[in-house]
């Protein structure tokens, strides 16, 4: 049987991003998203908030640290991961479910103010980015493109 471990979240960043570096030099950011759900019970509208811990590695961690601000909405795709450890004080087994982010998009609005120094990137990915492709097809001088397919 096939297995799928995929999580898609949109939520607001609950605190400023702190990026740490591993001894081998890899960036690591641990962020928390607040995800709101509104629902009705009879005529009353209620709201439920779920807090989700997300771990970002490499370039994603750097992008989050440079551009994401508390309160800003973020889009995250990733996978679930269960961390387990022994409690140092009691010796009891402990565990925590979190998301390992594999794609990140910074969405508009939220807590960020004006930034100087150019435009911020819209997204990041752990893999190397592909160069952006132009929306317009390449044309040679004097070519008739009336029946060209634009891809």
Q: Can you describe this structure?
A:
- The protein has 151 residues and is mostly beta strands.
- The chain has a single domain, classed as Nucleic acid-binding proteins (OB fold (Dihydrolipoamide Acetyltransferase, E2P)).
- The chain has one helix and seven strands, in the order E-E-E-E-H-E-E-E.
- It has one helix spanning 59-67, and strands at residues 7-13, 19-21, 27-41, 44-57, 73-86, 93-106, 123-125.
- Strands 1-3-4-6-5 form a five-stranded mixed β-barrel.
- A hairpin with a 6-residue loop joins strand 5 and strand 6.
- The protein is globular, with a radius of gyration of 21 Å.
- The two termini are 38 Å apart.
- The model is unreliable at 110-146 (pLDDT under 50).
SSE blueprint:
Elements: E1 7-13, E2 19-21, E3 27-41, E4 44-57, H1 59-67, E5 73-86, E6 93-106, E7 123-125
Parallel strand pairs: 4-6
Antiparallel strand pairs: 1-3, 1-5, 2-3, 3-4, 5-6, 6-7
Keywords:
single chain, about 150 residues, mainly beta, OB fold (Dihydrolipoamide Acetyltransferase, E2P), 5-stranded mixed β-barrel, about 45% strand
What's this model, at a glance?
With 151 residues, the protein is mainly β. Helix content is 6%, strand content 46%.
What is the helix/strand order?
EEEEHEEE
Our count of domains comes out at: 1
Radius of gyration: 21 Å
Unreliably modeled segments: 110-146
Largest sheet: 5 strands, mixed, barrel
CATH class placement: Mainly Beta
Q: Report the structural category.
A: mainly beta
Helix content: under 10%
Determine the mean pLDDT: 78
CATH architecture: Beta Barrel
Distance between the termini: 38 Å
Name the strands of the widest sheet in spatial order: 1-3-4-6-5
Shape from CA axes? globular
- How many extended strands? 7
CATH superfamily: Nucleic acid-binding proteins
**Proportion of residues in extended strands:** over 45%
Q: How many separate helices?
A: 1
Instruction: Using the coordinates shown, work out and report the CATH topology.
Output: OB fold (Dihydrolipoamide Acetyltransferase, E2P)
